[in-house]
Design brief:
Layout (H helix, E strand, L loop, with lengths): L1 H17 L26 E5 L2 E5 L3 E6 L2 E7 L15 E2 L4 E7 L1 E3 L2 E2 L5 E5 L2 E10 L4 E8 L3 E6 L5 E4 L8 E3 L8 E7 L6 E3 L2 E3 L2 E8 L2 E9 H12 L6 H18 L4 H4 L5 E2 L15 H9 L3 E5 L2 E2 L4 E2 L40 E5 L1 H8 L4 E8 L5 E8 L4 E5 L2 H4 L8 E5 L5 E5 L8 E2 H10 L4 H8 L4 E6 L36 H18 L4 E2 L1
Parallel strand pairs: 5-31, 6-20, 23-30
Antiparallel strand pairs: 1-2, 3-4, 6-19, 7-8, 9-12, 9-16, 10-11, 10-15, 12-13, 13-14, 14-32, 15-18, 16-17, 18-19, 21-22, 21-31, 24-29, 25-26, 26-27, 28-29
Helix pairs in contact: 2-3, 2-5, 3-5, 3-8, 3-9
Length: about 525
């Protein structure tokens, strides 16, 4: 009898795979459990048993028994449930973003610089000025033909601009602050201007402020779609499947749009996001190729929303088999960041460097990381998704440290919260896991696997990892128009003075100092009208 069951199972499994020869992709089919997905898609799949041929449906679970094929119920793997259609546009904050490249955030998080060099690599010269937030345009106050400039912090939070090999600044902005940056724009001959900074080329403008003594904050002020290209090229690579890159583009665009002007942390520094993994990795134009351009351009202006509001579209490198509920990472519940079991990511285990990892620590090493003595025991509590969300660590002297949520990986320097912990024969603690990152939202390697091995498009990917969200189109508020400049009125010709020694304005031709004072007063008045931003 056992041999008979075994033959039925073999026939059932073989038929599922052979069906791929004549069928095309439509739905996923799972074999034996809800987490094993066949690496192809089928319009129709059949099973042959003692009762004949039966058709299988992708939303149902079956078992092959001695009495024939039995339908057990509906399949349970559906991820976030798919995208919800939404025709209503979402109001956007801006189509440009300020990216902090060098900054001081806290004493322990300081990447500010003592000087910065800009080089115009696609034109000649630079313009200096400021950005008018109301009219949303760049106001030019001065220009230089030099193709290379050096910026240094000066006295009283000023920023000085130098030509190479010169000690006297050609330009100075006094009293910089988070609201008063020096804006610099490259002048281009024909194509879009490019600025090289720290060995990397960037689109857009650059901004400088001396927010800390003897240190510069450097910001790239760039078109949002150009920024998204830069993010996709670093967070993924140009060689990744186009549908994975599209999913990355929508997630990155949504994430940054939600951050623009709303982050109290970064607004205090005068920018919206950073160029590191504290927000999104960004290296200007580095790595941007045809695939990245296609992905960004084909999803231009698409955003993820929930109930008409931009979502916090966080993502991580690899979920290791399951994402996590937001309350077990952030500490509060978020109804679109809900943990899902991920049966797709495993297909990319060869490419994914985080598909499995092992970290071994001695009791003393583990204790030192937590500020206690040698560790005697580690007790782990997992969530419904199988991820570690609580660790109780006890030292040999009775000290106890409890780690919760994302601290279960960050405090121990582990890749993810998806791991087990045990002791080996030497008494060392062995952490074996998979995945990398906080395990919320989209898995980048999961998106890779879906696109490459399951022919899933970006809409499916996003709808799988984010629960109950919509794909919406952005809409900017109308841009105010500057009023036309008024023509100066024609002044009547001055009548000749009856008495050249009696001037009604109190000035005489023999008083050159008084005349000079009058001219300087008018110049200062002009500077004051320009918000007194620059000294020459």
């Amino acid at each position: 009898m056992k041999n008979k069951y075994f033959i039925y199972i073999l026939i059932f499994m073989a038929l599922l795979f052979f069906a791929s020869v004549f069928a095309s992709a439509d739905s996923d089919f799972y074999v034996n459990d809800e987490f094993s997905v066949l690496p192809k898609h089928f319009d129709s799949v059949y099973a042959i048993g003692t009762g004949g041929t039966d058709i299988l449906f992708s939303d149902s679970v079956y078992a092959l028994t001695a009495s024939g094929l039995q339908r057990l119920g509906s399949a349970t793997v559906s991820g976030g449930g798919g995208l919800i259609e939404n025709d209503e546009p979402i109001m956007l904050h801006s189509d440009r973003v300020k990216v902090g490249l060098a900054y001081t955030f806290t004493p322990g998080r300081d990447c500010s610089v003592s000087s910065a060099v800009l080089e115009n690599t696609n034109g000649g010269g630079f313009s200096f000025g400021y950005y008018d937030d109301y009219y949303q345009d760049f106001v030019v106050l001065d220009q230089t033909d030099a193709g290379k400039l050096i910026f240094r912090p000066g006295e009283d939070q000023s920023v000085d601009v130098f030509l190479p090999d010169e000690d006297t600044p050609v330009y100075t902005l006094e009293a910089t602050s988070k609201d008063n940056y020096l804006y610099v724009r490259a002048e281009s001959y024909e194509d879009e201007p490019l600025i090289r900074y720290a060995g990397i080329e960037y689109f857009g403008d650059f901004c400088f402020a001396a927010l800390q003594k003897d240190r510069l904050t450097v910001v790239n002020y760039v078109d949002l779609e150009r920024y998204v290209m830069g993010v996709c090229a670093i967070e993924m690579t140009d060689s990744w499947p186009i549908e994975a890159l599209k999913a990355q583009a929508v997630a990155a665009r949504t994430f940054v749009q939600r951050m623009i002007g709303t982050s109290a942390y970064y607004n205090s520094c005068g920018f919206d996001v950073t160029a590191d993994t504290y927000t999104q990795a960004y290296r200007g134009t580095r790595g941007v190729g045809n695939n990245v351009r296609r992905a960004v351009n084909s999803t231009q202006n698409e955003y993820l929303t929930k109930n008409g509001v931009l979502i916090d579209a966080v993502y991580s490198a690899s979920d290791g088999g399951a994402t996590e509920d937001s309350e077990n990472i952030f500490g509060y519940q978020n109804d679109y960041l809900v943990g899902v079991f991920d049966p797709y990511e495993e297909a990319a285990e060869i490419e994914n460097p985080y598909s499995s990892w092992t970290v071994t620590m001695t009791p003393a090493q583990l204790g030192n990381m937590l500020g206690i003595g040698p560790v005697q025991s580690v007790s782990a509590t997992t969530s419904r998704m199988g991820n570690v969300i609580r660790l109780e660590i006890r030292s040999t002297s009775g000290e106890v440290v409890v780690l919760l949520r994302d601290n279960c990986r960050t405090r121990l320097g582990l890749n993810s919260i998806r791991y087990t912990v045990s002791k080996d024969s030497r008494g060392f603690f062995v952490f074996k896991g998979s995945g990398c990152g906080h395990s919320l939202g989209m898995s980048q390697w999961g998106a890779f696997a879906m696109a490459r091995y399951y022919d899933k498009d970006y809409r499916f990917i996003l709808g799988f990892y984010y629960t109950g969200v919509s794909l919406s189109y952005g809409e900017l508020p109308p841009k105010p128009e500057r009023p036309p400049e008024e023509e100066p009125e024609d002044l009547p010709e001055d009548e000749p003075d009856q008495d050249p020694d009696d001037d009604s304005d109190g000035l005489t031709d023999e008083d050159p100092d008084a005349l000079s004072t009058y001219v300087v007063f008018n110049e200062l008045d002009v500077y004051r009208n320009e918000k007194n931003r620059f000294l020459f």
